[in-house]
């Protein structure tokens, strides 16, 4: 077998500053906006000429925060509650032999500002700083296979989780103007129930925190209800 050297063509500027709370798949949270910032060697508009004719693109990326932790032949998919093992190649787990992932995301625009080329993206599921190793246009006639089946992940993950904001949290959301979709963004992230599988099986009130953009968000979970208790600037 041969070894290959792959250089990143850019990196992602994402609202997700930690792995916790990132959706399991792309486009589950449409309000998750991000930028792909091109590296110097690829910071030319020629590289993306014609890309604005497509509404969606594939991103191939590197799981940079777990790449040094090796891989496992068998993993426990969160979709199965973390209780059943599947072969790593039957999943989209991060602990893979080459630590390569792929996401189909919405392309909202191409920006060339102050000498920097960027793609404006939505529905992202990538950690801030994720290295991008390739971009390909999404082709509906070829990539969307409507007669396909997907085994244990055949349907969109749904929860019964509800979300409520405390008066303090609502006041903060309404006062900030930088992110107009902040309320819906937080709500949709929490509706995905980002807790580890073993936590979902525990009774009683649980408290959590996450960082989205530059905000520290605290919330409580009781049964299938989320209460956002506070939002503060980091």
From TrEMBL:
Record's keyword terms, sorted: S-adenosyl-L-methionine
CDD domains, alphabetized: UPF0066
Cross-referenced Pfam families: TrmO_C (PF18389), TrmO_N (PF01980)
SUPFAM superfamilies: YaeB-like
Statement: the UniProt record of this protein carries the keyword S-adenosyl-L-methionine: yes
Transmembrane residue ranges: none
PROSITE patterns the UniProt entry points to: TSAA_1 (PS01318), TSAA_2 (PS51668)
Keyword Ligase attached: no
Segments forming domain TsaA-like: 6-147
Classification via PANTHER family: TRNA (ADENINE(37)-N6)-METHYLTRANSFERASE
Family assignment from sequence similarity: Belongs to the tRNA methyltransferase O family.
Protein name as it appears in the record: tRNA (N6-threonylcarbamoyladenosine(37)-N6)-methyltransferase TrmO
Organism for this UniProt entry: Pseudoalteromonas fuliginea
